[in-house]
Structure formats: structure tokens, C-alpha cells
């Protein structure tokens, strides 16, 4: 990807179709044989596409009920301000669906997936889950 | 289990790409206006109020 487009710089130039940062004192040339990248006179640089080429197994959405069913879990992913959003959502859900129980959960940190025990607890105790709030 | 995630509007494209990469392109999602972290409590509550119908719709059959 980067090899095709190259990096841009204040003095970018194009060599054999590759746009590379300009540095008049640096010898660069395009790689032969389809290699994606550029080389310097001292050391070859290979720019690799980090995209995962595997095809994942496709999952379908869980079947939905005709009407909202509880208990409903509100999962706070622990990003700032999400607690205010979810508190209001809980308030509104309780007003609109007074017979439906609303349960609150919170991830220990937004930097990692929810721990397995938390996921199991939600799966055991809830009929639906609302996860918020990523920004 | 029916589930929906809520994110701010800057994640529209990222959610589309990630959901396909993870094999779950139909994952239910609702977006609220960005930014979040600069919003005060009243603005956050307003976002929740505005998103409620879409969130509920994403959890029932008619929301599919």
C-alpha cells in the first residue's frame, strides 16, 4: 500500500512511479521484480502491507424478539463520559419499559476486550445487551 | 443474544471495516454525534435521549 503511494514529504519526488521523500543526497531507486518499496544504496527497505488476508468465518446477527425483552444489560466500556450516557439510557429504558429489568456492567478498562467472567455473567443474566460508548 | 453497540460518529467507517474484517458485518450499531469527551452532562444526556429509539429498534425484529 505505502509502496505504491510512497510517503509524502516537503520535497517529495517520483522515481520509477514511486513517490518518495526527497533527499537529494540519498540515492534511491525502485525495487525490481514487483517488490513493493524503495531501496537506498546502503540497505533495502521493504514496505509491507499489514492487512490480514485471511477470510474470517462470518457470523450472523442473533435473532431478535418482536418486542424488547429483559433483563437488558448496559455494558460500559469504561471510556470517559460513557457513564453519563448510560445512566441516562438506563433512566429512559426504565421509564419506557417499567417491567424490564436493567442491569449495569463495566469493563475494567477500555483498552482490552471484556474479561471472560464478565462476558459469562452478562450471558447468564441478560436477554440483550447495549454496549457504549466508544469515541 | 441481541446486542448493539454505540459509538460516536467518527467510528462509522472504522466500524464498517472492522465488522467485515471480524466476520460480523451485520453487527448492530448506533452512532451519536462526536465529540464525546468534550461534551457536558446535559449534552451527553441529550445524545442518549436522541439515540434511544435507534438502540431499542436494533434489539427487536423490526430494527433488523
Q: Brief overview, please?
A:
The complex is a heterodimer of chains A (about 140) and B (about 60). Chain A is of the alpha/beta class. Chain A contains 3 helices and 8 strands, in the order H-E-E-E-E-E-E-H-E-H-E.
Report on this structure.
The complex is a heterodimer of chains A (135) and B (64). Chain A has 135 residues and is α/β, with parallel strands linked by helices. Chain A has 2 domains: 12-49, no CATH class; 72-132, no CATH class. Chain A is 21% helix and 24% strand. Chain A is built from 3 helices and 8 strands, in the order H-E-E-E-E-E-E-H-E-H-E. Chain A has a 3-stranded antiparallel β-sheet with strand order 3-4-5. A 3-stranded parallel β-sheet of chain A has the order 7-6-8, sandwiched between helices. The two termini of chain A are 27 Å apart. Mean pLDDT of chain A is 79; it is low at 1-35. By secondary structure, chain B is α+β, with helices and mostly antiparallel strands. In chain B, 44% of the residues lie in helices and 16% in strands. Chain B has 2 helices and 2 strands. Chain B has a two-stranded parallel ribbon with strand order 1-2. In chain B, helix 1 (12-21) links the parallel strand 1 and strand 2. The longest helix of chain B has 18 residues, at 41-58. Chain B starts with a strand and ends in a 6-residue tail after the last helix. The relative contact order of chain B is 0.22. The chains are: A alpha/beta (135), B alpha+beta (64). Chain A binds chain B through residues 52, 56-68, 72, 79-82, 84-86, 88-89, 92-93, 96, 123, 126-135, and chain B through 1-8, 10-11, 21-28, 32, 34-37, 39, 41, 44-45, 47-49, 51-52, 55-56, 59-64.
Amino acid at each position: 500500500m505505502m509502496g505504491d503511494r510512497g510517503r509524502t514529504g516537503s520535497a517529495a519526488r517520483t522515481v520509477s512511479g514511486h513517490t518518495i521523500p526527497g533527499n537529494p543526497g540519498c540515492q534511491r531507486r525502485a525495487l525490481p521484480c514487483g517488490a513493493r518499496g524503495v531501496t537506498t544504496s546502503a540497505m533495502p527497505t521493504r514496505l509491507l502491507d499489514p492487512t490480514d488476508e485471511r477470510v474470517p468465518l462470518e457470523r450472523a446477527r442473533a435473532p431478535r424478539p418482536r418486542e424488547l425483552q429483559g433483563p437488558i444489560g448496559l455494558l460500559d466500556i469504561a471510556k470517559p463520559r460513557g457513564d453519563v450516557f448510560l445512566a441516562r439510557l438506563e433512566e429512559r429504558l426504565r421509564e419506557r419499559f417499567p417491567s424490564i429489568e436493567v442491569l449495569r456492567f463495566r469493563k475494567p478498562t477500555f483498552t482490552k476486550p471484556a474479561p471472560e467472567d464478565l462476558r459469562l455473567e452478562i450471558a447468564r443474566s441478560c436477554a440483550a445487551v447495549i454496549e457504549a460508548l466508544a469515541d | 443474544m441481541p446486542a448493539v453497540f454505540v459509538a460516536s460518529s467518527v467510528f462509522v467507517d472504522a466500524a464498517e471495516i472492522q465488522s467485515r474484517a471480524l466476520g460480523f458485518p451485520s453487527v448492530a450499531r448506533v452512532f451519536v454525534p462526536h465529540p464525546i469527551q468534550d461534551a457536558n452532562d446535559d449534552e451527553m444526556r441529550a445524545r442518549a435521549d436522541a439515540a434511544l429509539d435507534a438502540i431499542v429498534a436494533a434489539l427487536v425484529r423490526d430494527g433488523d
